[in-house]
Task: inverse folding
DNA sequence: TTGTACGCGTTATCAG
DNA sequence: CTGATAACGCGTACAA
């Protein structure tokens, strides 16, 4: 109702209007019980009347904290079907909110400007902690993100060797399980669609596949491999390469759902049947994979939980001084039993 | 190299170590040309040595701005295949970065705690402007988000009647075009899968369908309708309802890709063929839709551009006082020609 | 119970 | 060209 004149009201304005000192107004917010009922009511009335709300930035400065987390997320390709980062961010955001933290987000890309922006945010004291999800060098002009002096938690990439607590998925273990699952169905020949060589997840998952092969068959030398990337298109390319093979493996393991979606699509378009002609198993647990025909058998990551865990871990580090308790948390991915695998 | 003792260095620390006043150190950052070469080099050297970086929060407080935008995003359902909000956020983030703004994000949900959190952020002066993408009441305990005194831009929902500049897609026009496209193929009977009654986009798109019908056929009375929602599952339900019809329309228009994906999947599972037995056209332009079999014919929104536009509009409002120039910007969605439509 | 004074880390103004 | 000072908006000892 009462229209405030123009600018935002400050502690000062309220104090003057209520005929008290600014500390009294301040107390009315934080420690209402320490005021006499009379002045408290008076102050609160004026507070409402003037539409006063404390300036959180100033409060944080005074209190020496920021109550803000900075999440560094991976670049989002326009042609992506992945909801991984959205889910992760949702989990992070929900946990932040519960703990009264604000969430700053920046999506990485390859430009120096972006690297500089992140560094600026981190070194500029805009946040009290960092969640790292982007696979990036985080370095510019000799300034490294890790040296910004803030607590850091890595999400989905294991960075414990850099002394950074990490919340990760069971990349390796899941892929070992994938081999067992396929082998139990009678498969003995395997085709692996990997990601880029510099991708952490790709390397982990390939290592898992090879370990699984060695554990089950004593050797991984028979593994055939195609290098794809994050895109659906690269899965289509993988299909072309697969189809050109003289002796096609009966089981295909794909490093990520995006590529698997492209792969399956191209295979079906070529007239082959899944899982009749070949079995396909993948990793990520995208909802989109569930609605392919057939639904793609894939490892579900529950990124929302992972994100929430990472945020909580970081907030614990901020609140309790510094020492990270458990170095790293691994969340097992759960196999979603799509229709893309079958006995040979 | 040089390990800083423990806490972050401040202007004061550098000044003392360099034997100058704090204003000189401050100037070395902002106006280096106003210092003598000698002192500037000295100060800069000490700055580097101590690992000093200005505290942005304090600077912003002094300068009376926040250089921060707050984006209020819709709730993300765990079972979603939509990348709309991710794309929008990416566009917003990129534009913020270019303009030196930080980006605060909060995902809405139905809880009061979240509403309170958003209100707190907005009224607390944590940001200088708001981007609204969530379809929510934004109100709690009589505090309305719109009254927080900050410039606001609506993304994807037309809020110009509330005097809020809006960046929107061509919901209505596109759906009118959809009718024409289908009618040109010979279709005369239509089935519309809507969203929830309280969804802005659903209402807009239904209005577009009906307008298109009236424009082309003089009446919309023949339109059959099923109410779905944001989920893939609701599209599956729609398929069941459609299949139960005695006289099935040959053309199906779906309000959103998520539901369309479920619908198509269920239709195919039931043994019907698309587009042989029915044509399907939808809205959203999800990448996932492109890789369905057949690819779903859908209107592509380019949310990245929309997001960037919204951010820029908001920043303009912040920088240039207040007056919003153009009330609203409409981005036409482009039809992605999937294989889900055909002549009757 | 309430008011005074100071400081959080900056930057801008004004002397010198 | 450089330094002292005030102020941004707030919270809290300390004193009254």
Result:
């Amino acid at each position: 109702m009462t229209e405030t004149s123009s600018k935002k009201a400050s502690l000062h304005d309220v104090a003057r209007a209520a005929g008290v000192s600014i500390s009294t107004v301040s107390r009315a917010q934080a420690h209402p019980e320490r005021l006499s009922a009379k002045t408290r009511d008076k102050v609160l009335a004026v507070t409402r009347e003037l539409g006063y709300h404390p300036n959180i930035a100033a409060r944080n400065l005074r209190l020496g904290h920021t109550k803000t987390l900075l999440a560094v997320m991976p670049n989002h390709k326009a042609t992506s079907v992945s909801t991984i980062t959205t889910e992760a961010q949702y989990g992070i955001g929900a946990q932040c909110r519960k703990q009264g933290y604000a969430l700053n987000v920046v999506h990485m890309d390859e430009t120096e400007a972006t690297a500089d922006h992140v560094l600026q945010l981190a070194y500029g004291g805009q946040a009290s902690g960092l969640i790292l999800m982007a696979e990036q060098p985080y370095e510019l002009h000799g300034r490294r993100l890790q040296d910004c002096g803030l607590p850091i938690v890595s999400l989905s990439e294991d960075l414990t060797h850099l002394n950074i607590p990490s919340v990760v998925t069971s990349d390796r273990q899941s892929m070992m399980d994938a081999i067992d699952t396929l082998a139990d169905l009678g498969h003995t020949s395997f085709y692996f669609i990997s990601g880029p060589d510099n991708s952490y997840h790709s390397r982990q998952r390939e290592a898992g596949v090879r370990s699984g092969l060695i554990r089950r068959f004593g050797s991984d030398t028979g593994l055939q491999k195609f290098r794809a990337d994050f895109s659906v298109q690269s899965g289509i390319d993988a299909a072309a390469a697969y189809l050109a093979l003289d002796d096609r493996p009966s089981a295909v393991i794909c490093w990520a759902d995006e590529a698997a979606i492209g792969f399956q699509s191209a295979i079906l378009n070529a007239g082959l049947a899944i899982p009749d002609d070949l079995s396909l198993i993948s990793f990520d647990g995208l909802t989109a994979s569930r609605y392919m025909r057939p639904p793609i058998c894939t490892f579900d990551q529950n990124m929302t939980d992972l994100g929430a865990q990472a945020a909580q871990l970081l907030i614990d580090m901020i609140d309790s001084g510094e020492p990270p308790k458990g170095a790293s948390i691994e969340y097992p991915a759960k196999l979603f039993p799509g229709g893309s695998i079958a006995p040979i």
Summary: The longest strand of chain A covers residues 68-73.
